[in-house]
Amino acid sequence: MNPLELARSRPGEAFTVTFDDRPVPAVPGQTVAAVLWAAGVTAWRSTRGAGRPRGVFCGIGVCFDCLVTVNGRPNQRACLVPVRPGDAIRTQEGTGHDDD
Amino acid sequence: MTERAHLAVVGAGPAGLAGALAAADRGVRVTLVDAAEQAGGQFYRQPARALGARRPEALHHQWRTWRRLREGIERHIAAGRITHLTDHHVWAVQRASDSSFTVYALRGPAEEEGATVRADAVLLATGGYERVLPFPGWTLPGVVTAGGAQAMLKGALVLPGRRVVVAGTGPLLLPVATGLAAAGARVAALVESAAPVALLRGAPALAAEPGKLAEGAWYAGQLMRHRIRTLSRHSVVEAHGTDRLTAVTVAALRNDGRIRPGSARRISCDTLAVGHGMLPHTDLAETLGCTLSGPTGTAVRVDDEQRTDVPGVWAAGETTGIGGAALALAEGHIAGRSIAARLRGVAPDPRSWAASARARARLRRFFAALEAAYAPPAGWADRLTDDTVVCRCEEVTAGAVRTAARSLGAGDLRTVKLFTRAGMGWCQGRMCAPAVAGLTGCPLTAGRRPFARPVPLGVLAALPDD
């Protein structure tokens, strides 16, 4: 059993996005975090101070731990942002801007 | 021609939907403003439409109630009485000198574009979020909030991992553990710090809710069915792993909340779903100047009609105190009826909502008893090692927070923040405030944030001057 089977989900046609240049499968309606979780990825940010890995924590957009860079735009909450075909998702280092 | 009175409802969960329905049924024009793609809030969070779920009810409880709510809202939307603004993240509500209101929101997941809604009255149904108390290793990827694991399952139909430990305290842990198991995760253990006997102490209030007893029995059956081992009076004392979670250590708790020596054992897992109860979302109410009260001083205070002490502002659901979906429905319904009458300039007749008022009284008693039973274990703060990160955003350790309180004399959360930056980051202390309060002995006071979420400067600059 998996969640898609449990809810008898019939998503639209699958597509590919990239995570740090590696192709990752996705289906319409998934968030960035869901795509990465489904691919077994749990971390996509390193903190500004200690450079520690982070991923989803609250899952509802409150904690900002799951910040990620999507198509060059840093500080996107992976748990809220839906994926689109061809999205380039990148691990966010620190602030996500080249200023540190 | 005068325009019909207009109500803005912030939040499309059970409280907001019940309020919108009750008001629209009585001729009020309603704009429902909500951050999600679809109505439902956290309790009735729906799978994204594009996922094409043909059986979303498999992830839910009380589906019939949801269908009734949804059909009512859809009927009003079709008739033009309710406007539903989805993907609108409200960052402030302002009361003008003429007693009208402006609701400010950011649109879409990008949150770069502003939107405003004008209204004659506001119903705040902003819900709650999870409290998670820190422990060594809690910042490791793979450690998620219990509610977060559930939200990702309901909304995105995805599991956080394969082998999950569900831990903490509170009634949310049961649906999270059984829900994850039903969706295919292996739930290695359900670790609850409360003792079954603590629930018995609240027995009179708890037994007054036969529906809730049946719910409890149903969950017990589900735990057996999925062979989930329940460790009550236990706590996760540490999460292990270098760059991601690989195991947790759990230990038995003595009656005084301390660890039973020699009871620690390791459980391997790739996910820990952890939570210690809920906290109300009160930012918008605070900006409006609503008084907060409740047992922890962090819930919006309302009267019998669900009115806050700011004229024209009502509140219902978790924002007025944590009490679950059924209580939110009752409060929302009462608020909607009160609003419909007050906007016509007449006093409502409380007899017209007597059944909802009875349910409200009963459920508030029930959740007060539950809250006492599910209090976090005493001594959790003492178990925090000095190097444990408490503020996840600013990476402030327990040691730094202790120093601020003990050596530097900080006596409130704001001063701790100024000394250490704990609570100054992206989440604005929503995640760490309960922990900082517990560590320092400072009261858990509301944050007083002018913005309920980060707002791009461009959106502020584009606001009209009025």
Automatic annotation (TrEMBL), chain A:
InterPro entries: 2Fe-2S-bd_N, 2Fe-2S_ferredoxin-like_sf
Pfam family, any one: Fer2_4
The entry's keywords: Oxidoreductase
GO molecular function: iron-sulfur cluster binding; oxidoreductase activity
Name used for this protein in its record: Proline dehydrogenase
TrEMBL record, chain B:
InterPro entries, alphabetized: BFD-like_2Fe2S-bd_dom, BFD-like_2Fe2S-bd_dom_sf, FAD/NAD-bd_sf, FAD/NAD-binding_dom, Metab_Enz_Cyan_OpOx_G3PDH, Opine_Oxase_asu/HCN_bsu
Domain FAD/NAD(P)-binding: 6-331
Residue runs in coiled coils: none
Protein known as: FAD/NAD(P)-binding oxidoreductase
Oxidoreductase keyword on record: yes
Taxonomic source organism: Streptomyces yokosukanensis
Domain BFD-like [2Fe-2S]-binding: 389-437
Entry keyword set: Oxidoreductase
Pfam families named in the record: Fer2_BFD, Pyr_redox_2
GO function terms (MF aspect): oxidoreductase activity
